[in-house]
Every structure is written in structure tokens, then in C-alpha cells.
Amino acid sequence: MIHQLGKENSLLNQYLAELRDASVQKDSMRFRKNLKRVSQIFAYEVSKKLEYHNQEVFTALGSAKVPVISDSIVIASLMRSGLAMHEGFLDFFDKAHSAFISIYRKVEKGEKTDLRVDYLSSPDLNNKILILADPMLATGISAATAIRELSAFGKPDHTHLTVVVASQEGIDYVKRNAPKSNFTIWTGAIDDELTAQALIVPGLGDAGDLSYGKKNE
User: Looking at the domain assignment, is residue 180 inside a domain?
Assistant: First the structure.
């Protein structure tokens, strides 16, 4: 199932507009803040799909039964671009556990080759709700690799992949390689064009560099 939240009129589109705007992108602090805001909206929308149970709470005047989340949640992010989103999810799912994964594209003799996992840390994922955060879904290979590697830690009840901007090609790739059931993609926008260099057009650029500065490769 795919949810494209940018199709609806909501505050998410204001943050998405700023994330895409090259003039606003010069402020890395605001870029990180907008990634965090978008992930908070994702968190609210994902929360509607979770399991709940009634909890009795006591006020100064009596008691009330309030639906609270029953599911156990793990938030996983791809470093480094997904870190600001990770914080946004934790602001809403403050009891969640965390997983982190670092994936890089190995380069040999000037040519890019296969993806390699450099670092992976995760709690047990059996019977959990897994939320995977990454700002961009270009080819979809990194997201599919992350999902495959995380499967070593158990089988989640449901996996939610959350991306700010996706390419149609990336979505198609993930759909072919992700779990066939209990899997949902959440995105703000879907862009049609993906260049030969795996850049989404119009996209928003390199989210990691825009958040934390350019890196040497």
C-alpha cells in the first residue's frame, strides 16, 4: 500500500516546498527542522494504523478510559540522511526503540559498484512495528537492502517505509523486493524522473549533505 500525503491539502506541503527550495536549503538548520516536521506528520498518520487498547487514567475528579497504543515500535533510520527524521518520529513515539543502519556504495577504479552495509544496530524486531526513515527513495536499492539486513533481527508485524520524496522507479523496485504483505510506503511526493546518476528530478538534492554539510567520497 502506498500513501502519498502531498496529494492532500495539509501543512506537510509547506515543509516540502521549503525542503525543495534551493534558496531555503542554504540554511542547514532549517532543512533539518523541516525533515523533522515532515516525519512528525508521518508519525501522526502512521499512528492511525496501529493497534490500541483502553487504559484507565485517573484525574483529580474521577477516571477516564483513553485509547493508547498497544504496538511495540522500532524506528530505524539510514545514516546520515535519516537522522533528523529519526528525531521527529521519537518526538511522537517516545517509547519506541531505535535501529540504525549505514549503507554505502563501494567505489572501485572510479566506478560505483554494489552497496555495502557499514554499520547496523537493532533491537529484536519480532512482532514489532518497524518504521524505516529515509528522506529520498531514488533507485530503491538502499531501502530494500536495509529491509533485508534488518530481517536478521526478526520479523516485524508490519513495516512502514517513510520517505519525503520518492521516484516512481524506486517505488516499483521496493515493491518487487520488499515483503509481500504487511508493508506500507509513505511519501510526501512521487517524482517521475530519475537520471542515469540516480538523481530524482526535481527531487530536493542530497539530504545528508543539506543537513550536515558535504562529505568527501
Answer: yes
